[in-house]
TrEMBL record:
<dbReference type="InterPro" id="IPR011761">
    <property type="entry name" value="ATP-grasp"/>
</dbReference>
<keyword id="KW-0547">Nucleotide-binding</keyword>
<keyword id="KW-0687">Ribonucleoprotein</keyword>
<dbReference type="InterPro" id="IPR008503">
    <property type="entry name" value="Asp_endopeptidase"/>
</dbReference>
<keyword id="KW-0067">ATP-binding</keyword>
<dbReference type="Pfam" id="PF05618">
    <property type="entry name" value="Zn_protease"/>
</dbReference>
<feature type="domain" description="ATP-grasp">
    <location>
        <begin position="263"/>
        <end position="446"/>
    </location>
</feature>
<keyword id="KW-0464">Manganese</keyword>
<dbReference type="InterPro" id="IPR013651">
    <property type="entry name" value="ATP-grasp_RimK-type"/>
</dbReference>
<dbReference type="InterPro" id="IPR004666">
    <property type="entry name" value="Rp_bS6_RimK/Lys_biosynth_LsyX"/>
</dbReference>
<dbReference type="InterPro" id="IPR013815">
    <property type="entry name" value="ATP_grasp_subdomain_1"/>
</dbReference>
<keyword id="KW-0460">Magnesium</keyword>
<dbReference type="Pfam" id="PF18030">
    <property type="entry name" value="Rimk_N"/>
</dbReference>
<keyword id="KW-0479">Metal-binding</keyword>
<dbReference type="GO" id="GO:0016874">
    <property type="term" value="F:ligase activity"/>
</dbReference>
<keyword id="KW-0436">Ligase</keyword>
<dbReference type="InterPro" id="IPR021109">
    <property type="entry name" value="Peptidase_aspartic_dom_sf"/>
</dbReference>
Length: 465
């Protein structure tokens, strides 16, 4: 049998952890292998526990930090060479050295003060492996430049700790997002937004929930109901201040929920929309109607969703009556021109990461101009034009939303944006389009929070350091 010779020092890779190059000390005097790790944090369900940790793979470059995660195999006491006993997390992963790849157990411990970020113990060696204690680097050499040349599409995908902010844990969208995350090896916690409370301070701010401080999440998915927009966006802002990526930013949620503000933003970005007017004084009612071209026209409460609080006034008298009723309730509202050529139809464009990933055409009931599915409308697949696609993407970008449901009307003079939704429902558009939108959203999150090791300036290759 051909022997596989190792020196007392070798380069190796741990591809399952996203570590393409580690300089290790091979020590047959130690039974257990050990890997440098800090910020170690267990997470995930009890039946599939995970552990996340950070590592500085290059001892001379503390700015190079990689975040790793792996299934947690065990936690056991390990006695080091100086006689100290430490309770360590244990993982199992594959090691690659030369043309050999094999599974090993590794314990996680802080080796920041040591010259080697990894120690390869005797339990990791296969039967045909021989260690020559007087020699080093018997296997092919690597170097730390490997961390700076990884193509974007080939980056290691680690398990993420995600949270969804919602008060509806059992609705379709929440369930599908959880399924998509878990299918890709991540964990997703459901957090009731209204039960969060915050410790606000300059350094080390916190979000608490049910008597415990919430851990650091790689990303948070806000799905905040319209009734708690103000408090919900405050919670999102707190996560943002802690450096957590939020799929819908607090500013985007706030602007999209305020119909007046949203239309002002659309107008500022020269995005087509129905002619819109707004006033508070009852004396301006007649002028409002004239500004949008007269009846028929649409009146919308500023704080409404799913087609509620939206009324079609077909005559000037009906418009005055509805305006009077809204003003009597001291409710703020918009007046918009009615796009007749839309014929009770609109188009929902689902934008993810600056791309329209799915579309559907929604039709209202025969006696209802509103096309919302929540109001009994129906939906079908639809092809959109290049212009409609560009308008949808531009509208989502104007609202600063990475994921958005953009509703368009097909007007005689081009597409007109009705609304931009920061928490679009997934059920209707997934079933109509046949696409896994929730999976695409999780893929987008992975791309946003993937580790991007900094590339030091003025640094040459360091072969065999």
């Amino acid at each position: 049998m051909t022997q596989f010779t190792l020196g007392w020092e070798e380069w190796l890779a741990l591809p399952g952890l996203g570590l393409p190059a580690i300089r290790a000390k091979v020590d047959t005097g130690a039974r257990t292998s050990a890997l440098h790790a800090f910020a170690i944090e267990p997470f995930g369900p009890s039946d599939k526990p995970m552990v996340r940790f950070a590592i500085h793979p290059d001892p001379s470059e503390p700015g190079l930090e990689v975040i790793c995660s792996a299934p947690l195999k065990d936690r056991r006491e390990v006695t080091s060479s100086n006689g100290e006993t430490e309770l360590r997390f244990v993982i199992e992963t594959e090691v690659e050295m030369g043309d050999r790849v094999w599974p090993i157990e590794i314990t996680l411990t802080d080796r920041g003060s040591m010259a080697y970020r990894m120690l390869l113990g005797r339990s990791a060696l296969l039967d045909d492996m021989v260690v020559s204690p007087s020699q080093r680097l018997q296997q092919p050499e690597l170097d730390y430049e490997a961390y700076h040349g990884i193509p974007r599409g080939k980056q290691h995908r680690r398990a993420l700790r995600l949270a969804v902010l919602t008060r509806e844990p059992d609705n379709y969208s929440t369930r599908k997002l959880i399924e998509a995350a878990e299918h890709r090896g991540h964990t997703m916690e459901v957090i009731d937004t209204s039960r969060c409370y915050m410790n606000i301070r300059a350094v080390g701010g916190e979000v608490h929930y049910d008597g415990r401080r919430l851990p650091h999440y790689d990303a948070v998915i806000p799905r905040i109901g319209a009734s708690i927009t103000s408090y919900g966006t405050a919670v999102v802002r707190q996560f943002e201040s802690m450096g957590t990526y939020c799929l819908a930013c607090s500013e985007g949620i706030t602007v999209s929920r305020d119909k007046l503000h949203a239309h002002q933003v659309l107008a500022r970005h020269r995005i087509g929309m129905p002619t819109t007017a707004f006033a508070r004084s009852p004396k301006d009612s007649g002028n409002l109607v004239d500004l949008v071209g007269g009846a028929p026209l649409v009146l919308k409460l500023l704080e409404s969703s799913q087609g509620k609080g939206v009324v079609l006034a077909e005559t000037p008298k009906a418009a005055e009556s509805v305006i009077s009723a809204f003003q009597g309730l001291k409710a703020d509202f918009l007046v918009q021109s009615f796009v007749k050529e839309a014929a009770g139809e609109d188009i929902r464009c689902l934008v993810v990461g600056g791309k329209v990933v799915a579309t559907m055409r929604r039709r209202g009931k025969p006696d209802d101009f509103r096309s919302n599915l929540h109001q009994g409308g129906t939906a079908e697949p639809v092809r959109i034009s290049k212009t409609e696609r560009e308008v949808a993407i531009k509208a989502a970008r104007a609202m600063k939303l990475d994921v958005a449901g953009v509703d368009l009307l097909r007007g005689a003079d081009g597409p007109k944006v009705l609304e931009v939704n920061s928490s679009p429902g997934l059920e209707g558009i997934e079933k109509v389009s046949g696409k896994d939108i929730s999976g695409l959203i999780i893929e987008h999150i992975e791309a946003k929070v993937a580790p991007k090791p900094p590339r030091p300036k003025g640094r040459g290759k360091r072969k065999g350091v």
